[in-house]
Amino acid sequence: MTAQFDFLWNKIRERAKMLINPISYSTFIENLTPVDVVGKKIALKAESELAARTIAKNHLEKLREAVVSADVGLTDVAIIVDGSEEFTLDESADAVEADVVLDKRYTFDSYVVGSSNKFVFAAAKSVAENPGENFNPLYIYGGTGLGKTHLMQAIANEIAQKKPSLKVIYTTSEKFLNEYVDSMYAKKGAGREGETRFRNRYRGVDVLLIDDIQFWAGKYGVQEAFFHAFNELFSQHKQIVISSDCPAKELTTLEERLRTRFEGGLIADIQPPDAETKIAILKRKALEKKYVVPDDVLAFLVRGSDNNVRTLEGRLNTVIFASKLHEEPISLKLAAEALQEAINTDEQEEVTPEAIIRATCSYFNITKADLIGKNKRQEIVRARQICTYLMCDMLALPLVTVGKLMGGRDHSTVIYARDKIVELMRVNDRVAKDVNDVKSAVLKQ
């Protein structure tokens, strides 16, 4: 045991003593001996296979927690036994080498599946089960707060658990870019070595997941580096998963050769959740916090929200905090007061497609024939897109049905109109106001 390992282990052991019950700690943990560090994993030697088996079965998660909380730069632990075939040290890199720390709560089991995301969920699950064999590359896109990062990390977590022999890197486009810049401009003549390390790191993996590549727009150096890494991995049938906030074809500032490679795999979009899925998401979030929230409160929280799941969770957290603060059970009245919103009984009536069409026509002063017809005047096209968006946002209808209601338009046209308004609402205050005003008019009918 070197002094270095001794120092690390003493720090970890201090944390483990607080996390594991005293009898188990003194029987199994205290006698472990640090023998090596591989990547971000510390190897601890047990006295026997029986001891190692007991630790692996009952105390491994707490031991991992101790490693992380000790803040010594390590994230995992391996239990080994001299002469054992079962408990040996795998000297390869960590199963998941994450520049961004993976959230263990981001799993497929914790992902709420609804009509808006079941296709992309199935694709992600298939990739995690058979990396490099199905859907390569997998390109996931969707608006902010719809669950892209959850799915990306779920893939990484699933592979780490079920296929630990595979080397996986999960990172963000920003981290990848920063590493690229560092590798090119390393000081003291180390640039060539840094470039080699960067190249080997990203071309020597089994699964590469990169989040939010839209941030590479106009940055051609990093695009070039990724292009070569992509080709190398793809030729070896290694899995590549990419996420973005828009379809590949709209990444016009990315090089054409990158876009065509993305389009050569499977492109799967996460659509805005319908009301039923939003309620299911809130119900799961509440249970995770050990709260049971009445259905009428969940419906109230959903009715006043946008499509961003983080916004939904924020509304739920506000209500839970108010319940704790006032020491009152969660009720519709408490929720309304916490969010400073009025409870309008009219809002609780069912919204219909006809109500949305009427409110849109009235607000923009156009006829229903214009709205659902072929008129291409800009103001009518925008009204049509807003109406389509509100049907997707406020009603739990299949996209095909929305298309029929909007004059027999196809599935792709509905998706385009919906996503166009989602994007415009983020950057255009006028469009955001129009959408909110029409929605208010619908709810007041």
Biggest pleated-sheet summary: 6 strands, parallel
Q: How many beta-strand runs?
A: 9
Give, in spatial order, the strands making up the sheet with the most strands.
4-6-7-8-5-9
Instruction: List segments where confidence is low: pLDDT < 50 over at least 5 consecutive residues.
Output: 91-95, 187-191, 344-349
The shape is globular
Summed over residues and divided by their number, the pLDDT gives a mean of: 83
Order of helices and strands: HHEEHHEEHEHEHHEHEHEHHHHHHHHHH
**Radius of gyration of CA atoms, rounded to a whole number:** 26 Å
Quickly give the structural class: alpha/beta
Tell me the fraction of residues in β-strands, as a range: 5-15%
Helix content: 40-55%
Gap between N and C termini, in Å?
76 Å
- Count of DSSP H/I helices: 20
